[in-house]
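Extended Data, record MOT14 protein
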Amino acid sequence: MYASREDIGYDFGDDSEAGSKPIKPNPNIDGGWAWMIVLSSFLVHILIMGSQMALGILNMEWLEEFHQSRGLTAWVSSLSMGITLIVGPFIGLFISMCGCRKTAIIGGILNALGWILSAYASNVHYLFLTFGVTAGVGSGMVYLPAVVMVGQYFQKRRALAQGLSTTGTGFGAFLMTALLKYLCTEFGWRNAMFIQGAVSLNLCVCGALMRPLFTKDVVSEKHVVRSNSEDNQAKALSHSAETIKSNGVLSEEPEKKEEATNEEVLDRVQHIEIGGKSRSGKSMYGLRILKTVSQLTVTVRKGFAIWYSSYFGAASLFTNRVFVAFIFWALFAYSSFVIPFIHLPEIVKQYNLSSQNNIFPLTSIIAIVHIFGKVILGIISDLPCISTWNVFLMANFTLVTCILTLPLMQTYVTLAVVCALIGFSSGYFSLMPVVTEDLVGTKHLANAYGIIICANGISALLGPPFAGWIYDMTHKYDFSFYISGLLYMVGIIFLLIQPCIQKKQPRKKSTEEAQV
């Protein structure tokens, strides 16, 4: 599972006591600090997803600067958007070892570094590495913890919380578009990217707000440990070794042997450190370094083992036929939302509607209604008499219908209506973490959602270039929408034909798992 022992917030203790000791829920769940987590996730969506929706401003600057083809230049934006989502499963390795907070802070620094280095780009291929890869990986390291932490802090109002946090995408599309346009006009695109890199450092602040969940028992236990450590240094050192031992127990015998070997090294270091107080400072400093390296080795090995077993050892994820169909759906869904943002301006130009579109752009209509769609669909899904799964499917059917009918609309009013429906129905993105949890349970939420957003990343990476390739062949955007809409419909049909959908009651199952 992505979430480390710190992030989960429950005291599992020893294996022998796990079944007898009752779990006390954290008072911050569904309240208190949980709303700070929503705020943090909201800001993450503004700074990451919102800025990616505004890359059209920079794309025009890159075309004028480097004089490359539109297809090649568009890969810079596609790489950034796609890699942000594709790296989701691999970010789990960092979360298993460091937790969500540290992963997000490191990602914020990496994202800012990508923006700043891109300001010195000499060609498009340089941007592939700095902006597409570096900033994209950094964005992924912040985005996934932001989504996972909201799911951990909320149980009863999870859909609403996810809806509120993800509305940052719509707000960010407005704010970042205006910001980048102003900066490019006043200072040039290079200085604009440098300033945007400084703004992106606020992602580190968002990561710092992702405080791990703890129960009262865990907090009191840690307080006792601190007071005991003041009295006896040897006991504190012994406790640190026990903490490493309890930081993730694996069932495989080889892992136990490796664990024992590393703990033997720690024990030797402890005895030498306790008995050698009269030795020189350099020797003690060297022993402390050895102890730290041994602890880091144990943490890395166990973090990698937990991450590896979650994806390749837990067959339950991929034996769930509905979840496999969900992955197939995700491969086509996200591109149907991204393609209108990229190609609508050109369609408007072909229909001679530029004057009306300049007053109120169609992409702005999508972004505005998208905000309300996320909140309203989240509220509806939280109603006890409403199935989240049914709301999710209805929103998907509405979106795919709009994608297929959009090329038939040739007036500004009809295009505006269709774009409004696209924005509202695409609000189902806020339900994706909830639906994922309903399908696989709370235990596998982070892993499963990482796989889903990875599939979405592939869709975002390949969808826009594919649509451009279709236009180059047919000289019409109509077929781009038709093909993407049909593929999207195939993904929805895969969700419907699974026989276990009607029998599955995900919400009840998820609640029962949370109480175990």
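Summary. The longest helix spans residues 281-313.
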